From TrEMBL:
It holds the Pfam family KduI. Keywords: Isomerase. GO terms for biological process: inositol catabolic process. It comes from uncultured spirochete. GO terms for molecular function: glucuronate isomerase activity. This is Myo-inositol catabolism IolB domain protein. It comes from the Bacteria.
Length: 294
């Protein structure tokens, strides 16, 4: 199911997916958070939450200590995009910035239920994406930094590079076993495919799209149905349906992906459609168009 979005995000917190009613099976909420300079928003929800910074500069004021790579040794990353300060009263101040979804790895603040955070925009505009789900586990708040993101050029060297894309995994069952979510991004080259070969999994998943330039578009398949997707649209993936993606030529397609583990059946890896796994095998014979010479 595609949820089409018209125009820019609403100011403040705009709930795009609510896990109730006919979408209760998604098991997670998804929202945009758009703030103008000097405005702020506070969250103290009884949910696990992940805040992914999409654009601009923000300040996070977290009510308790936040962990990051090296925090146990009091190591502060020397990054222009990050400032971290442990406050005397036990909280944490974080300033983070991002200028490009395509060129820069993500910064994500990951909080357990009940931990309070206030987010203030320090730039003229800031946009974040908020994923939330139920989780009774008590884990330490965590800041995921750009350099620790697992980044790969997936399918590189195959299929004449027609499905080579950047896949960025922020956290999954390996580095966040306490979480009920898996979170990451894909950068899809213009005119190329991603989420390919076609694959599926029983766990519900959300894709949220951005295109560059913004008038761009792509196509997605859900099982045997195809849908047009545009800037700021959201895709709901359920029922173990294959979901390959393709961007129109000329338009780079970025999408956030978030998967919700099922109780007793966490997401580890996808199941590939057996009809199409041959394309990844060494020596696969792929037809190539050639210009005939007279």
């Amino acid at each position: 199911m595609v949820l089409h979005h018209s125009g820019d995000y609403a100011e403040g917190y705009e709930l795009l997916v609510l896990r109730s009613g006919d979408r209760a099976h998604m098991l997670m909420d998804f929202a945009s958070l758009s703030l103008q300079k000097g405005t702020s928003w506070r969250s103290n929800a009884n949910d696990e939450r992940a805040f992914l910074l999409a654009e601009g500069m923000v300040e996070f004021l977290v009510s308790t200590k936040v962990e990051w790579v090296g925090s146990s040794e009091d190591w502060i990353p020397d990054l222009k995009s990050i400032y971290i300060e442990s406050l005397a009263e036990g909280g944490t101040r974080i300033r983070a910035s991002r200028t490009s979804l395509l060129e820069e790895n993500p910064i994500v603040l990951h909080l357990p239920a009940g931990t309070e955070v206030e987010i203030q925009a320090l730039s003229e505009r800031a946009v974040l994406y908020v994923s939330a789900t139920s989780n009774d586990a008590r884990f330490a708040p965590r800041l995921y930094l750009p350099f620790e993101c697992q980044t790969e050029f997936r399918n590189e060297g195959t299929l004449q590079e027609t499905s080579t894309r950047i896949v960025r995994t922020v956290f999954n069952k390996t580095n966040a076993p306490w979480s009920n979510l898996v979170l990451g991004e894909v950068v899809n080259q213009p005119g190329r495919w991603s989420s390919y070969p076609p694959h599926h999994h029983p766990q519900p998943e959300i894709y949220h799209y951005r295109f560059y330039p913004e008038q761009g578009f792509g196509m997605t398949a859900l099982g045997t149905e195809a849908y047009l997707v545009r800037n700021r649209d959201t895709l709901l993936i359920t029922d173990s349906k294959d979901h390959p993606q393709v961007a129109a030529p000329g338009y780079a397609m970025w999408y956030l992906w978030v998967i919700r583990h099922l109780d007793g059946n966490p997401y580890i890896s996808p199941e590939f459609n057996p009809d199409h796994v041959w394309v990844d095998k060494p020596g696969a014979q792929i037809w190539e168009m050639r210009r005939e010479r007279q």
